[in-house]
Every structure is written in structure tokens, then in C-alpha cells.
From TrEMBL:
Keywords: Membrane, Transmembrane, Transmembrane helix. The lineage of its organism: Bacteria, Bacillati, Actinomycetota, Actinomycetes, Micromonosporales. The keyword DNA damage does not apply. The chain crosses the membrane at residues 78-100, 120-138, 150-172, 184-202. InterPro entries: Perm_prefix_1. This is Putative membrane protein. It comes from Micromonospora pisi. Coiled coil: none annotated.
Amino acid sequence: MIDTYVYRLGRALHGPSRHKSDLLTEVRHSLTDTAEGFRAGGMDPAEAERRAVAEFGPVRQLAREYQSELLAGSLRSLAIRMVVVGVVLAAVGDLMWRGAPWTGPEPPAAYLFLSGTLEWLWHGVDLFALGAYLWLGWQARRGRFPVRLARVTGIGLCVALVLGQLVTIAVYTWSVTLWEAALTWPPMLVGGVVLVAVHGWLGRSAYVHLASGVKG
């Protein structure tokens, strides 16, 4: 009974794997302790497990409560990752261009505008993500978690992230198109790999958060 209950609860929850695993472990331990207490009182083991599960409540009700916790955890994770990636991208962007050996015609005005926009865009994304992270911490200290507002904040972070990623890809692709030597410049190649890695990392975090929000 306990294994089945925990399994069903796990299927109903969506969110960060580690946080979800911790919640399920906590539930299992609580159910096991309760069942052991009933057995110590002389109850049949199978009946003790059924009683423990019954007292714990329906899976659907518990899943709704725990899903809010997972939503908060996934939003915190996404926000702090976006802040970290923003710092990494700023450093990588500078290193990719420092000492570049190629020369060529002045890039078009549209390119200069887009590349300049990219820096300010990520500054805005970082501030938004940092604000969301601090807001979550403040709500946690107050013992409150407004689910609807958290969902809206999470969607906003995901939209900002996608916009930042699209502009980053556009600037990188346009750069290697304008300067062919950039395709063989080691910092540009390494920077491209780093960009793919960090954006993939962020993309997975955003997906986990959106899944948490849909179920939360």
C-alpha cells in the first residue's frame, strides 16, 4: 500500500527531480513511521499500511499541496540559473572578441544595433531573474506562496529567456557570416560551445518549471 501510494504520488508530481525525490522520501518515511506505530499497537501489517495511507489523505489532494512546493522550487532554480548564465555570457562574450585577428568592412547599422541590444537585453533578464529570486525568498520568510503570481512570473522569465536566446543566436550567426575568419578563431569556437551548453541547461530548467506550473 505504501509503495503504491508513493508511486501514484510521484506520477502526479512534476518539478525538479531532486526536490521531488526529497518530497517522496519524506512521504515514505512518514507513512512507514505511522504504519510501524499501528503495528506496535498489535495491528496486522497490511491493515497498518492501509490505515496509514488512509490517514495521510487522497493522492490528488496531497499532490496539489506538494505541487505548489515544486513550483516554487523550479522557479527559484530557473531564476538563479538565469542570473548565473547572464554573468557567464557577459564574460564569454568579451573573451570571444578580445584580440580578434580579422579585419573587414564596417558592419551594417542593423548588426550594431542588434549586438548593442543584446548586452542590455541580458542585463534586463538578469535583473528580472534576480528580482524574482529575492521575491521568492521574501515570500518564503513570510510563510506565503502566491501560486498564480508565481506562474505569471515564471512565464515572464521564460519569455525573457527565449528572447535573449534568439537574439544571442542571431548575433553569433551574423558575426560568423560577416567575418569568415571568425569560423577558425578558437575563442569564437569555444564560445559557441559554451553558448550551446548554457542555453541547453537553461532550456531544460525552463521546461521543468513550465511543467511544474501546468500541474501546480
